[in-house]
Amino acid sequence: MKMNKLVFPLVIALAATLASTGCKKGTPKTTIIPGRNQQIVGGETGPGTLPSGQPIDNGNGPGFNDKPGSLSTAGLDMFDGMIKDPAALAAYTVHFDFDSATVKKGEESNISAVASALASNAGDKLLIEGNCDERGTEEYNRSLGERRALALREALAKAGVDPSRVRTISYGKDKPADSGHDEAAWAKNRRGDFILLHPKAGV
Amino acid sequence: MKKLILNFLTIGLVAVALHGAHAQDIQIVSTINVLGQTKPIPVSLDGFTGEAAEVLKFDLFVQGFSFVAPDAAQYQISGSSAGDVSGRVTDKFAKKVVLSRSYNGASVRRQAHAFADDIVQTIQNKKGIGQTKIAFKSQSASGNGEIFVADFDGYNKQSITSDNAIVAKPAWVPGKLAVYYTSYARGNPDIFYHSLSGGQRRVVAGYSGLNTSAAVSPDGAKVAMILSKAGSPNVWVCNADGTNLKRLTTGLEDSSPTWSNDGQWICFATKIAERRRLAKVSASGGPVKTLNTAGVSNPTEPDWSPDGKWIAFTRQARDFDICVMPVDGSLPPTVLVAGQNPSWAPNSRTLVFNHEIGHRQVLSVLDVFTKQYKDCLRANGSNSQPAWAK
Lengths: 203, 390
What we know:
The complex is a heterodimer. Helices cover 30% and strands 15% of the residues of chain A. By secondary structure, chain A is of the alpha+beta class. Chain A has a domain at 76-198: CATH 3.30.1330.60. Chain A is extended, with a radius of gyration of 31 Å. The model of chain A is unreliable at 1-24, 36-47 and 58-72 (pLDDT under 50). Chain B has three domains: 1-32; 39-124, Rossmann fold; 133-388, TolB, C-terminal domain (Neuraminidase, 6 Propeller), CATH 2.120.10. Chain B is globular, with a radius of gyration of 22 Å. β1 of chain A pairs parallel with β5 of chain B, so a sheet runs across the interface.
């Protein structure tokens, strides 16, 4: 009797151990992994090869036809089909200090040169490309580059340019002017480039 | 700060004292999880060869295990990978087999990942990350690139775009085969939604100026992002399809929004008085609260852990380093390893990030508690901005 009392729980414990580990010598529990396809998350199973992105349905985005406001950047649709002329204003690229979006005093001549180019060609518009050196994280630099482009747009507005003629784009650190990794290269890369936009032919 | 760490240590010592200096109590101490200082769980690995051995070593190493001789191991892992993978785990101190399983189908590689997950579940009582996916950006010297999806260790990579455009910041929809990312394919940085099962994609934010850094809410219903349409790069939030757009911040320069696990908060990088700071704002709007990152300069790229406890981010001193801090502010940030762009695994202890080797970015996987990390298989070009599927 006493013996039974001791042995019984032991048997139960042993059985529980076997059940929980699935351990019966020689025949371990088998996990079947279906197909070659990797389960990603949430129970969805992907195809063997993921399909490449299909063409983008232009203009389908809810915010695509954004209209410009006094503070807002100009609507993208206003620039559709315009022809880029990167050479026209290449001499007036503005450079920035490290981690700064302040347009320096010394850059005033570049700003007024760009302003007068726009003043003398009423049909032209402007694209400002903001860029950064590689010292800054990627998305931080994408915001900093945009702020640089926006600061230049503000400076141009003060010089009399209608902001609705100006579009901004930030490339962050993805489009360095100089691929070097020293201060000389960095100084060249902290910049705002001006791209003159001509109306499309026949307009 | 010192007092807190002492308290942590005290808890560990008391635990050891209470149980006697029995070797199994090493496990109790290691579960305290002091960032970067936790001792890995020593295991031995016998009988596996080639790819199966590599997978097991990689998966276990980045989840806090170390490999030692059988007599020094807390758990002995043995088995075979001839044909299919089969293996068993013996708890050396309890003197019992705690896991015995064989695998069938797919590939040896996937079988080994599945076994690694079962080992982690058995020993750590946590879901393993062996069968999870990442998305990332791969960029050529021209600056253009594509978005890729791969196993978390970089294997089985596939490009999901073929636009040859600048791309940025992929983000998964939780529990779905779908990502958001930024692409300059239309000549402007726009945010796309991309279904990975069908390949359909849609512009979610194509406003004038900057549209980038999509981050999907834990329930998948909302997207936070950076837009500059109102005149400065700020945090905005909208429905998953881009409708119901709302501006959340008005500072000079914001970047990299990330959601809290409960969907209540959005943490982001900002600039206050020309200093880089981390801050948070309620997802429904309200005042911006700066986070205390004292002792760490130039924080950016926050990523909130799925368990809600941690925020990983990048600091910039001379170079970039991965840091982690508890959300509750109970400890200051811990600087872990050189790198950028941290993204949490579903287990809230492993991060994928990128670090520089010879002016190119390489993906790497880091266990934040033991500070053990390993590089992923490299794709061509520079690989960065990894996002872990959750």
